[in-house]
Amino acid sequence: MESVTKLKDIATQVRRDIVRMVHAVQSGHPGGSLGCADFLTALYFNTMEHNPSFNMDAVNEDVFFLSNGHISPVFYSVLARAGYFDVKELATFRKLNTRLQGHPATHEHLPGVRIASGSLGQGMSVAIGAALSKKLNGDNHLVFSLHGDGELDEGQVWEAIMSATHLKVDNLISTIDWNGQQIDGPTSKVMNLGDLHIKFAAFGWVVIEMNGNDMDDVVATLDKAKSLTGNGQPVCILMKTEMGKGVDFMEGSHEWHGIAPNNDQLAKALAQLPETLGDY
Description:
It is built from ten helices and seven strands. It has helices at 4-25, 30-35, 37-47, 72-81, 123-136, 155-166, 187-190, 196-202, 215-227, 263-271; strands at residues 63-66, 143-148, 172-178, 181-182, 185-186, 206-211, 235-240. The strands form two sheets. Strands 1-2-3-7-6 form a five-stranded parallel β-sheet, with helices on both faces. Helix 6 (155-166) links the parallel strand 2 and strand 3 (172-178). It is globular. It starts with a helix and ends in a 9-residue tail after the last helix.
């Protein structure tokens, strides 16, 4: 477990990795990646019990599934910084024959990646299946998952949410990146999601909220979520974040969902993100 100060330093370096990776190939999704940097840093460096030597079956350890796979830059950076593979491999992001595909893929055998998550809406079902398998195997560890709020437009997600309650999947903590943005604009205009707290509660989940860009709150809320497991209900964290967090000209706009910074924009971004762990 790391101190909050150390976690903040790691998250800053992760954000620096993200903008450099996306800029280098002029392709990728920086907005949501930057917004989720604090959450994934806290998850891998403080909350989860996991083993970077990597066993695909995740026996006797916590497991994480990234459903909104387009934010692969933040996932790859955190995995590398947590010791799953050499940090230098981040330089191969989205290049020909790389293991770091634009969306995580299992056929590349990249340590830390257990599902291909290019198609939105599937991660909740996978996470529930993994949680049920842990129960059947007598493994008391937890399953964590992350989903975009725009991803909730997919009907499959709600079928899975309903089944998790019916099956009493109480070893699952699913987090929704509640940034209010998706590729075509604000979620309120594309497909208004209504009151997500009321919706998840109506489906029988325990629901808590957190500020996903406040490391103190992220750490405390993840600890609280863990304490709520094992009581017959799945746990949902509604995580308020700001798309593009950490780079002022990217913050709060859906326009940075899937475009890369140019040279001048990269320089401005890096000036706001001091190197804390060493660049790849």
